[in-house]
Amino acid sequence: MATRVLIGGQWGDEGKGKIVDVLTEDAQLIARFQGGNNAGHTVEIGEKKFVLHLIPSGILREGKVCILGNGVVVDPLGLIEEILEVQSRGVETSGRFFVSERAHMVFPYHCRQDAGAENLAAESEKIGTTRRGIGPAYMDKADRKGLRVGDLLAPDLKSLLREKLARRNVRLEALGVESLDIEAVVAQYVDAATFLKPYIADTVTMLNDAIAGGQKVLFEGAQGTMLDIDHGSYPFVTSSNATAGGACTGTGVPPQRIEEVVGVCKAYTTRVGEGPFPTELHDETGARIAEIGAEFGATTGRPRRCGWFDAVVGRYAVMVNGIDWWALTKMDVLDSFETINISIGYELDGEHIQHMPARIEDFSRCVPVYEELPGWHCSTKDVKRYEDLPNAAKAYIDRLEELTGARVGIVSVGPRRSETMFRDVPRETASV
Ligand code: GDP
Ligand code: IMO
Ligand code: MG
Question: Residues near 1 by Cβ (< 8 Å), separated by ≥ 6?
């Protein structure tokens, strides 16, 4: 498989980081295509735990080349911090990590604008953003007012920055937010330019040349289908296309070059931030899932809301992403549950529906229709082969496949590489 796009099938935090790390073994290049450091991708290798926000999770495997595509919004200061952090833990970045010159930059005024807008919003309109400036950075991009990573190489960088910052200060004042010390920010970004210069590249050509030369590319999605700006639970979404189509627009690789789409989903559902979540559990069962699954946000530390698997979401994700197969994570978290529910449809104003309503007012009135399945009441943590899973766990997986319309190719029963089962996924290498 030369090109594989990996995306989240739910509301983010599905375990994409872990699965990317596992699948990186089969790839030479790994590219992020959207989002920014609102993402938090966790990879556990032995006793070491890494949480990556911008750098693709592939960086943790020696020799792999990692790219931030044009669709990503890059906070240069956050990125430098992350580069230094991984370097301090023995990861080489020079010569194997590149940032698109076309990627837009996040500035401190975006972060302040993000926080200011959230603070000002009425309770019902708060999105619960990560406050990383993501929405305002994409606003500037769409408004054609942004600065891009390539601008860090401009000879007149200082004056470019001064001009932008002065205009943004006016916007911050209108929001009642403290304005920025322009010269301090200019100095930070001039230093950042020096640091990042060797990493800035024409990643569009790099990726297309690599594919033409037969190299294998893995595209690493951030967030998830239900957080996609077009297809998610708008307006409670992020500001980019987290679905598979984003891999093309966000890297400059044409659609004919995409060979496979992998969806990552948890065996249950979580959501962090505001917005409707039909299968959310407000009871002891939800609290138990949160506790066993250690469901706290990797970026903000906020507790994640937990609920049962929603097959309406799963089916919808298969449709809008063209998911070829699922990587099903956190199966082990359900080990001790007596029974397990799956939402097979919704009840909306007395009608049974199977589709995803577009209007948030409708989606928020959807009541899940559950099918109850027996639990397996034993630990799956040490199971190494799919065939050795308990029958009830296999029956649960069979039902998820039937309801969502895509096969489960990987089952994950722990955060580590070794806690991964492959079914009939085409793999060039035999072991994880
Ligand atoms: P991402 O944003 O999709 O990369 O997911 P996060 O890293 O934010 O959250 C997933 C969390 O679940 C991380 O702490 C992972 O280490 C952990 N994890 C991943 N797969 C499994 C699994 O199969 N079982 C368990 N128990 N934890 C997992
Ligand atoms: P990964 O890649 C889960 C959520 C925020 C908020 C909404 C908008 O780790 O799966 P934003 O800061 O993007 O404007 O916030 O999206 N959100 C995520 N939730 N996982 C993520 O990324 C997320 N990135 C953003 O909580 O509800
Ligand atoms: Mg995450």
Answer: 26, 216, 259, 260, 426
Q: Take residue 276 and report the two structure tokens written for it.
A: 């409707």
Catalytic residues: 13, 41
Ligand 3 centroid – CA 89 distance (Å): 21
Return the pLDDT at 431.
39
* Residue 27: band (very low, low, confident or very high) from pLDDT cuts 50, 70, 90: very high
pLDDT at 424 over 50: yes
Task: Look up residue 215 and give its two tokens.
Answer: 């190299």
Residue 432 pLDDT level (bands cut at 50, 70, 90): very low
Kindly give the distance from the C-alpha atom of residue 309 to the centroid of ligand 3, in angstroms, as a whole number: 18
Higher pLDDT, 171 or 90: 90
CA distance 298 to 182: 31
3 state DSSP class of 166:
helix
Tokens representing 204 are: 């569009």
**Same domain? 82 vs 152:** no
Q: How far apart are the CA of 10 and the centre of ligand 1, in A?
A: 13
Look up the pTM and report it. Answer: 0.97
* Ligand positioned closest to the Cα atom of 51: 1
Q: What is the pLDDT of residues 257-285, one digit of tens each?
A: 999 999 999 999 999 999 999 999 999 99
Please identify, among 170, 198, 226, the residue that sits at the C-terminal boundary of a domain. 198
Atom 3 of ligand 2: nearest residue by CA position: 12
What is the number of the ligand 2 atom nearest to the C-alpha of 40?
Answer: 9
Ligand 1 lined by 412 (C-beta under 6 Å): yes
What is the C-alpha separation between 279 and 342, in angstroms, rounded?
A: 9
The response to whether residue 60 sits with its C-beta less than 6 Å from ligand 1 reads no
Could you tell me if 178 and 230 lie in one domain? no
Mean pLDDT of 14-20: 98
| Parent domain of 82 | 3-95+202-429
| Domain's final residue, options 167, 198, 229 | 198
